Amino acid sequence: MSRTTVTTVIVFTLAFAFITPSTHAQCTSTQLAAPFAGDAFANDQFGRSVAVHERLAVVGAPEDDFGVGSAYVYEFDDGEWQQVAKLTASDAIAGYKFGISVGVSGDVIVVGAYQPFPAEQPGKAYVFERPAGGWANMNETATLTASDGANNDNFGFAVDIDGTTIVIGAYLDDDGGPNSGAAFVFEQPVGGWTTMTETGKLTSGDLDENDQFGRSVAIAGDTIAVGADYDSNVAYQAGAAYVFVKPAGGWTTAVDNGKLTAAVPVDFDRCGLSVGVGDGFVIAGAWGDDQVAQKTGAVLVFVRPDTGWSDLTTTAKLVASDAVSGDHLGWSVEADGQVIAAGAPANLFDGSGFGATYLFLQPITGWADATEDAKLVSSNLTEDDEFGTAVALSGPMVNVGARFFATGGYMNAGAAYLFGGALDCNDNQEIDICEIVSGSSPDDDGNGMLDECETSSAVPETSRQMTLLQNRPNPFNPSTEIRYTVSSAGDGALQVFDLQGKLVRTLQQGRFAAGNGSVVWNGRDDHGQQVSSGVYVYRLSVGGHTQNHRMVMLK
Questions:
Q1: What is the CATH class of 455-553?
Q2: H/E run at residue 438
Q3: What is the pTM of this model?
Q4: Where exactly does CATH 2.60.40.4070 map onto the chain?
């Protein structure tokens, strides 16, 4: 296996980022940035949690200021990632662990504080909305709590947000028995986020003592996944994940639509320590999986059946091609569209436990047992930095936390790393990172997206009969405009398809008049359901002529 080294000057430090591929592709990539906290200090654990959305990244530092905690906001502007804000809780004191979890969607950030000290309080989550003048150092817009919260519930240990819905885990909630766990859903009120209790509470009928349901949570569209890594129904601490689909009447107190477990559960697999929701599938990290060697770990993929979610066992198992004992692959996971990112914070790189993150791209034939498409590491790491403690994925961007990195000489201050190219935006079954490195499809502006997939470099496809323009904006969230010109009136349709060719939405159908036209797609399918992030194809067919373009919806 060959490896090429590319040196890049980045925003906060000089570093390399190597992509060590499996047989799928061979490539090397540079990270866009390695953000550190501007006020880093020993034991902050900056990078214990991470999130990313479009050109906004968030990094949690729960041990900042002796466990008060904080979160840092970075924006990509003029080719650089820059720290623009430090978020803090107005009521936090030492031991609150504000920043143990973070999430971001659009202009809203949510930060968890599970409050284990000083009095083992129930826990909280804090919502921050972008001010009109842009992100700046600030306290919360609103706080979220559980209506039945009790001391030591650990509410806020895990959070996620998508659009106007937030899900929060409380893995020591006692409703199903001591430490059985629960998750809570919050939907944004019409007037905007305000201090409130939950819209609904999620549980399962088979929860038992110490299952720790809610250790991890994830949401995408109308689907929520919740991890219970201590579930012991089949094997001791084999773990499980649960999937919930939004009811027609909205999120309310509900039980799961299905329980997801390994095909052969084994003691201490710890499936569900991390979970993610992709396009038609759910993933669960099983960091204790021993299939390759002791605790090498794995990512378990569960594909939604055509009949809908139900109790399922593994559809596919993803492992590292270079796995060794103690890697802990699956300690952290994230899914976005057809791509999976998974952290292995104890991975051995060049002989020491620096950590690594692996990327997996869904094959055109669907998920099956596989090894990685790319491996992300950084050469400025040292032993036990735990690169891969946390991972986040949105469109082309991957955010990776290394909570024990020594910043500025401060031990365990922590760091985070941002990589681009985590898409297959041109639908050629090769992850974009590899194309950027080889030069076969460049990323000249350094924003992690292939130039050919961006509006600025898109060349309109034209004919004498019609012109279909690239959508704008692209990538987009939550909506995008599709423009076209038809030279002669005719019958036809403007439709959106996924990469498997399945019809997602018919935007316009019938008689097209000659002249210019445009349609706005709001990211919903023909049933009104929000689609998952990923790559879609829009097709204009009029009078026997057809043209296509690709577009990218970001989480």
A1: mainly beta
A2: helix 432-438
A3: 0.82
A4: 455-553
